[in-house]
Write a structure and sequence with these properties.
- The chain is an alpha/beta fold.
- Strand 6, helix 6 and strand 7 form a beta-alpha-beta unit.
- Helix content is about 30%, strand content about 30%.
- Helix 8 crosses helix 10.
- It folds into 2 domains: about 1-215, Rossmann fold (3-Layer(aba) Sandwich); about 220-275, no CATH class.
- It has helices at about 40-50, 70-75, 90-100, 110-115, 130-140, 160-175, 185-195, 210-215, 255-260, 275-285; strands spanning about 1-15, 15-25, 30-35, 55-60, 75-80, 150, 180-185, 195-200, 205-210, 220-225, 235-240, 245-250, 265-275, 300.
């Protein structure tokens, strides 16, 4: 079942095209990660799907209908990138207010405990830290027992412990049949949670596939080794050095190893592995070349 869909969705702001004929779907039971550099169109796409903005051309659907329809929005939970909370209300009062909009909300104590903020129930939101406000904003997305939760940069401002606590809450929601569309700048977050990744660049879909497939499709491998000094080698896309090891990024690991042997340089502890999602992401969103997919040729399964 498709819960959210964009079909050649375009959004313009004056002369600026924020989204250019974007098409993708979110199916029931998925955790979909949305990646892209600043200005790629991620927040614009999410705003279209939740009905905050309208498309300039194309179509978006939420639960098979108009995202602005109240019945459809009742089945949705959202945490936008920026959230305003009434500063004089206590945390428990904010939860009660949002809960009143749903027929069967999650009980206040259960919700606050799930997101690790039970001890804040009597605190005014105006006195909370940025991280505490963010955790409350995320918790509110789950109040109405939604079928689909859309989270825009949910863990910005959270410490490592709070971030991992949120990950566990998302995994629990997903294990119970929930669906999540997650936009994040933390690539490790997408790797930890998502089964599918949609990469946006310059307002278009560059890739839509599994995490492993996106790593593999870009064709980049990391060749790591210990060596005192290396000559200039053909086919090397990037070089990093850390803790006495050199890491070479290449599209042809076999040829690079052959070139290393022919160079007659002493090396040891050779290791070849796929790129991380971060390396794949940087490759996909770089300026296109003849060997690299362009925005007009999205990578799909």
């Amino acid at each position: 079942m498709i819960l959210a869909r964009a079909d050649r969705a375009t959004r313009r702001y004056g002369e600026v095209t924020a989204l250019d004929q974007v098409s993708f779907e979110v199916r029931a039971g998925e955790v979909v990660g949305l990646l892209g550099p600043n200005g790629a169109g991620k927040s614009t796409l999410l705003n279209l799907l939740v009905g905050v903005r309208r498309v300039s051309a194309g179509r978006v659907e939420l639960f098979g209908g108009d995202p602005r329809d109240r019945a459809n929005r009742q089945r949705l939970g959202v945490t936008p990138q920026e959230t305003g909370l009434p500063p004089t209300l206590r945390v428990g009062e904010v939860v009660d207010y949002v809960s009143a909009h749903y027929a069967d909300p999650v009980p206040r104590a259960e919700l606050l405990d799930r997101f690790g903020i039970a001890d804040l129930a009597r605190r005014q939101t105006g006195g909370l830290s940025g991280g505490q406000k963010r955790r409350l904003a995320i918790a509110l997305a789950f109040v109405g027992r939604p079928q689909l939760v859309i989270l825009d940069e949910p863990t910005t401002g959270l410490d490592v412990e709070a971030r991992h606590s949120l990950w566990e809450a998302i995994r629990s929601f997903h294990a119970d049949g929930g669906t999540v569309l997650l936009s994040s700048h933390y690539l490790e977050e997408i790797e930890a949670l998502a089964q599918r990744v949609v990469v946006l660049g310059q307002g278009r879909v560059l890739a839509d596939n599994t995490v492993a497939a996106i790593r593999g499709i870009v064709g980049v491998r990391r060749v790591s080794l210990a060596a005192a000094e290396l000559p200039e080698l053909p086919g090397v896309l990037g070089v990093e050095t850390s803790e006495g090891r050199t890491h070479l990024l290449t599209a042809d690991a076999d040829q690079l190893v052959r070139d290393l042997v022919r160079s007659d340089v002493a090396f040891s502890d050779l290791e070849i592995r796929p790129t991380s999602l971060e390396e794949a992401f940087l490759t996909l969103t770089a300026e296109p070349t003849e060997a690299q997919p362009t925005a007009a040729q999205p990578i799909t399964a």
